[in-house]
Design brief:
The protein has a four-stranded antiparallel sheet with strand order 1-2-4-3. The chain is α+β, with helices and mostly antiparallel strands and about 210 residues long. Belongs to the nitroreductase family.
Length: about 210
């Protein structure tokens, strides 16, 4: 298990690099990966439905399946400790009762609030157009993905978000229902084999208006 933790939030943010070449000898244990994912799932979620789903691809067989689906990202696939495929579950509403009941059991929410909110949420989402529902879920998928990268950084690992892959094939390639699980992005994770490059950001004054 990696014992290098970064506790300085500023260093987590400013020290993050988009790494494409990793040390292939570094492995991340299932226990530590679970911890990273758990920290990622503390991200905000629309009406707390938590639609994100993760596929951790860290075996030789799993990477062999991924390689032809991520043709332009072979270095990340081959050298990373793992590639995490982030999906959103288009049936996430099925978990609403479980989520809200547990919130009541743990004392996070009064039962009367649950009983008032759940019917409203279900009623709204039942009639929401599929594209609008997917858009809502993708916002949550983006939030959890960024939080995952920051959590990985806090554990001393580096990441690279990948959008260029065969999104229409990846769910089925791993035996998942492609109509239910919609891909958000791939995130490679591991120990950087090089320092990577700093990147330029537009100044806040250029991208922000104050009213």
């Amino acid at each position: 298990m990696n014992t290098t933790r970064i506790n300085d939030f500023q260093e987590i943010i400013t020290g993050r690099r988009s790494i494409r070449n990793y040390d292939p000898s570094i492995k991340i244990s299932k226990e530590e990966m679970t911890e990273i994912l758990q920290e990622a799932t503390l991200a905000p979620s629309s009406v707390n439905l938590q639609p994100w789903r993760f596929l951790v691809i860290d075996s030789a067989e799993g990477k062999e399946t991924l390689a032809p689906l991520a043709k332009f990202n072979q270095t990340q696939v081959k050298t990373s400790s793992a590639v995490i495929a982030v999906f959103v579950d288009m049936n996430s509403l099925d978990y609403a009762d479980e989520i809200y009941d547990e919130a009541v059991e743990k004392g996070y929410m009064p039962a009367e609030v649950r009983d008032r909110q759940l019917p409203s949420i279900k009623g709204l989402l039942d009639v929401m157009p599929a594209e609008q529902y997917k858009e809502m879920n993708l916002i949550d998928g983006g939030l959890v993905s960024m939080q995952l990268m920051l959590a990985a950084r806090a554990h001393g690992y580096d990441t690279n978000p990948i959008g260029g892959y065969e999104k229409d094939q990846i769910a089925e390639a791993y035996g998942m229902d492609k109509d239910r699980y919609y891909p958000v992005m791939l995130i490679s994770i591991g120990k950087a084999a090089d320092a990577g490059y700093k990147s330029v950001r537009l100044p806040v004054e250029k991208i922000t208006e104050w009213k």
